[in-house]
């Protein structure tokens, strides 16, 4: 005999008591208390097959959540930042943003939908009337709370419905992985990219304006010239990233006016090359006073003495400008003898 033919056998025992007793109004209590309405059993309370269908539905939602979390991580790795797709009726949007939003949304929605379906179809829905009690927790209240918690845990059928329990734990354990993956966007990975530029031994110094290699004769005393590494072109996809580290400021000073010994050794006939990137917040330095040999950052007025190792003489910058060791090749063009000896730009972990 199936459960549908004899549904009374499957009714929870705690629901056998009647509800909805109506108190009779009298002079002392003119308003009748209708009490709770009679409890109506759900099909899952009577039919175990229906309960198992609900259990499989909840487990399916939790499983979809796990798959969506895996898809979220895969999308983060698979889609490049600059790829766009056409989605009707939205139009052209970022493939990465669309995939991340959809997969994370599905993962969170399925956990919520599974929990709601579980509560509405399998957990106990018996209404319980409870008298108000003092706010302080008395021993009897604590005992009652613990008893109610134990009863609720029993009624949730978490121990009995192992499929739901295991898939729910899996979904809840995997969703936080989405947040861990998003930490990747907090900044570059801890590599040494900020410690190196495109400058290397033998790289020619190319004029930023003419795009031609520089000779010492192209730089008169007191002038300021900006240069870039040989091979770096404005149409390169990473031009802005590379020039932000490799931009060079070249001045020519009479060798007798150079105070710092290393600066003199790293120069060529008074031509010295320093990073153009201010060591305060990374602004490009563009002002030079030829009489004092001072370079001024226009953002916050940090001032560097280019005749004395580009040390800071005024302003908030905390470090001197990095110098690039230069010389001339066999053809008489200025070339680098290596990379900067320290990271360019702002403090960058105190350049450690």
From TrEMBL:
Feature: compositional bias, Polar residues: 1-15
Region of interest called Disordered, as start-end residue ranges on this chain: 1-24
Domain Rieske: 240-335
Localization per Swiss-Prot or TrEMBL: Cell membrane
Keywords, comma-separated and alphabetical: 2Fe-2S, Cell membrane, Disulfide bond, Electron transport, Iron, Iron-sulfur, Membrane, Metal-binding, Oxidoreductase, Respiratory chain, Transmembrane, Transmembrane helix, Transport
InterPro entries: QcrA_N, Rieske_2Fe-2S, Rieske_2Fe-2S_sf, Rieske_Fe-S_prot
Superkingdom of origin organism: Bacteria
Cross-referenced Pfam families: QcrA_N, Rieske
Entry's transmembrane regions: 58-81, 93-116, 163-183
Topology of the protein relative to the lipid bilayer: Multi-pass membrane protein
Its biological purpose: Iron-sulfur subunit of the cytochrome bc1 complex, an essential component of the respiratory electron transport chain required for ATP synthesis. The bc1 complex catalyzes the oxidation of menaquinol and the reduction of cytochrome c in the respiratory chain. The bc1 complex operates through a Q-cycle mechanism that couples electron transfer to generation of the proton gradient that drives ATP synthesis.
Family of the protein in this entry: Belongs to the Rieske iron-sulfur protein family.
PANTHER family: CYTOCHROME B-C1 COMPLEX SUBUNIT RIESKE, MITOCHONDRIAL
Protein name as it appears in the record: Cytochrome bc1 complex Rieske iron-sulfur subunit
Origin species: Streptomyces lasiicapitis
